[in-house]
């Protein structure tokens, strides 16, 4: 058996420092989620916790390609998206614990964290519900003439929701008008 040793074919072009940074982000998100799970299973956290464990690379890879003012919309499993987009873990925990210092003053909880300053338009507990928000953000960017993009994270359950296809249809119409792109990932 032979092993390919030509690294040029496997090179991502990101460089060692960037890849290490991304790896550290993934580990930080995993550690955050493990702490959330610990709090939740010991009944120290109000509400529900839908973890992002095992999906860290998706959020980190996508958010690393975005600018700070680009938009994201998220799902009920949005902790990883928030952190990858630049949310502070202490404010995230404050939100999850219902504290005033949280991003939504402790009112959003686990499934509704938003940080407009970093372009995070919020997590949404409605399956596929954030597609319309991302479409609106992309339309806003087009109308205002900015170079921002909107990324919509969603799960496979959203594939059965009409709003998803309405968002895609709207995107296609807007694309004909040269609107900034709406990207969707699950």
Explain briefly what this protein structure is.
The chain has 186 residues and is α/β, with parallel strands linked by helices. It contains six helices and four strands; from the N terminus they run ααβααβαβαβ. It has a four-stranded parallel sheet with strand order 2-1-3-4, with helices on one face.
Q: Would you mind describing this structure in some detail?
A:
With 186 residues, this protein is of the alpha/beta class. It has one domain (15-185): Rossmann fold, CATH 3.40.50.970. The protein is built from six helices and four strands; from the N terminus they run ααβααβαβαβ. Helix 1 packs across helix 2 (56-64) and helix 5 (130-144) packs parallel to helix 6 (162-176). The protein starts with 15 loop residues before the first helix and ends with a strand.
């Amino acid at each position: 058996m032979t092993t390919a040793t030509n690294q040029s074919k496997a090179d991502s072009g990101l460089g060692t420092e960037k890849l290490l940074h991304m790896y550290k982000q993934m580990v930080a998100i995993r550690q955050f989620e493990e702490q959330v799970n610990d709090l939740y299973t010991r009944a120290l956290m109000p509400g529900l916790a839908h973890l992002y464990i095992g999906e860290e690379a998706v959020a980190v890879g996508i958010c690393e390609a975005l600018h700070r003012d680009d938009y994201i919309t998220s799902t009920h499993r949005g902790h990883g998206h928030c952190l990858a987009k630049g949310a502070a873990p202490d404010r995230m925990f404050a939100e999850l614990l219902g504290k005033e210092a949280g991003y939504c003053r402790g009112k959003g909880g686990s499934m509704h964290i938003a940080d407009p300053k970093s372009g995070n338009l919020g997590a949404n507990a409605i399956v596929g519900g954030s597609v319309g928000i991302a479409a609106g953000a992309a339309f806003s960017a087009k109308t205002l003439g900015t170079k921002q993009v909107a990324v919509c994270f969603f799960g496979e359950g959203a594939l059965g929701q009409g709003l998803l296809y309405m968002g895609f249809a709207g995107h296609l119409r807007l694309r004909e008008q040269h609107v900034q792109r709406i990207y969707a990932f699950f």
